[in-house]
Each structure stands twice: as C-alpha cells, then as structure tokens.
Specification:
Distance between the termini: 31 Å
Radius of gyration: 18 Å
Order of helices and strands: EEEHEEHEHEHEHEEEEEH
Number of helices: 6
Largest sheet: 9 strands, mixed
Structural class: alpha/beta
C-alpha cells in the first residue's frame, strides 16, 4: 500500500485535483473573427469538473509525448467527432467524420495516463476511443444496426432512453439509481476489446465500459456534462482526489512510457480481456 504524495509543485496535498480534458481544434467565431482554427471544449465539461472540486486543464491535440500526465491527477476524454476507422482496421463509411489529430493526441495521452495509473473517464467519443485503444471496434453508423435514429434524433437534438448496469460493476456503483440518460451519437461500440461492457440501452447498444483491473477506467456513451447530475465526472474527480489526498493507493506518477496503443492496424493497449454479463 503506497502512501499519498503531493504534486511536489509547492502546493499542499489538499490542492484541487487537476483534471485534463482533451480538446478539439475546430473553426470558431468570436468578436470580429470568423472561421478561425481554435482549441476549444464545451464549457459544460469545465463546469462539471469545477463543481466536483477539481481544476480543469484543457489539453489540445498533441501526439509528441504524453508527459503532461505527470502534473495531472485524472484524464477526461471528451466527446466529439468520430474515431478514425483505420484505428480499428476498417474503411471509413461515407458518414464517418474523422479527426486524425485528436485520435493521435488522445491515444498518446491515454497510453501515458494508463501507464501512470491515472483515473480515466471517456465520454461518448471518449468511450469509443477507450474501446479502440483496448483492441475493440465500432459500429460506424448505428441506425444501420438498430434500425432507428433514437440515439441521435436530429442534428443538434439530444435523445433520451433507459439504461441498465451490471451489478457490482464500477458503472453500477457510480450510477446507482440512474435508469435514464441522454443520447447524441451515431456510432457505438461493437466489440469492447479487453474492456468489460457494464451498461446497456434497452436496444442492446453499449452504454458503459470499464477496465476492472484498474481502480478507475470508465467510459460512458452519453454526455454526463449535460445532465443535472454529472455523476461520472464527479466520480472521476473523487478518484483523482484520492490519489493525492489520502487514498491508500494515492501516488504521484513519475515514469512514463511512449504510446503503444490504437495503431492504424487496430493494435490496442496491453492487458487481459474481461467480460461482464
């Protein structure tokens, strides 16, 4: 059992956990400027992290190295455009919208975060990226599989549906009492790779995945940052706080490894595949 450590940055152990949030590079408008490439992330993620007692750190796409995780206490992989199908060995569907810079940067961050044993939460696209990094695959256009558009009723319009979780799982613990979630996605996890599927929609679509071999690696298909109770984000901040403020496994990462997961050939991260009924 390892004793908790501070960040060694002159801050007390009780400092707010630093939560890295992966960001987009997209054309943006503000003031007199139009279509300027900008690094951005919806403010709802930041608000949810702050409300839970964390300090949000926005991370632009960068695949040079993952050394930034040495000053983080948790990682939130945000939603957004589709993961490139080449990452899991498929050709892109015409309706797939890729962001190769995000894929490369986020896989680099994820590999380093897992090596440093940081708590990780994947939201929507972030959950799908987790599955791909662990050797899984995606459905590129979900309506072709389930036969309806309820998971994304219209562009810019959230759906809502029932959800259930596997008893005893991290998802069930974090989301106790939650039986309905929002929905805005046209892709979904087909094969979770070495992750466990621990949440489902009523039509069988995967809604939660996790790595039971780790303290906190969780993916959710919906957008908790836009829910009145963003419980998965609150749980991420709580797990990050335990690392630096008194949890028996609390420690500060030191040694990092180069990225190894999610290659163009579909190779994922090392680890055993586990499944939960």
């Amino acid at each position: 059992m390892r004793a908790p450590q501070s960040r060694n940055l002159g801050s007390p152990v009780s400092a707010r956990p630093l939560i890295g949030i992966s960001a987009y590079v997209e054309p943006a408008d503000w003031a007199v400027w139009r279509g300027v490439p900008a690094v951005l992330v919806p403010a709802a993620y930041v608000r949810a992290v702050t409300a839970a007692g964390g300090r949000a750190v926005v991370l632009p796409p960068d695949d040079v190295d993952g050394e930034v995780v040495a000053v983080l206490d948790g990682l939130l992989l945000a939603g957004g455009a589709d993961v490139g199908p080449g990452r899991y060995g498929q050709r892109p569907d015409p309706r797939t919208e890729e962001r190769p810079d995000r894929d490369a940067g986020e896989l680099t961050l994820l590999t380093a975060a897992l090596a440093a044993e940081l708590p990780v939460l994947g939201v929507c696209r972030g959950m799908q990226l987790l599955a791909v990094a662990y050797g899984g695959t995606l459905h590129q256009h979900l309506p072709d599989v389930v036969g309806h558009e309820a998971h994304r009723p219209a562009l810019g319009v959230y759906g809502s549906h029932p959800v259930r979780f596997a008893s005893g799982s991290l998802a069930a613990t974090v989301l106790a009492g939650v039986d309905r979630v929002n929905s805005y996605h046209h892709q979904a996890v087909a094969d979770p790779g070495r992750l466990s599927v621990t949440g489902w929609a009523e039509d069988g679509v995967v809604e939660a995945v996790e790595d039971p071999a780790r303290q906190f690696v969780l993916g959710v298909q919906w957008h908790p940052e836009n829910e009145p109770d963003p419980r998965p984000i609150t749980a991420l901040v709580g797990a990050a706080g335990q690392r630096i403020g008194g949890g028996c496994d609390g420690h500060r990462p030191r040694a990092l490894v180069p990225p190894v997961g999610g290659s163009a050939h579909g190779q994922g991260l090392s680890g055993d595949r586990r499944s939960t009924a």
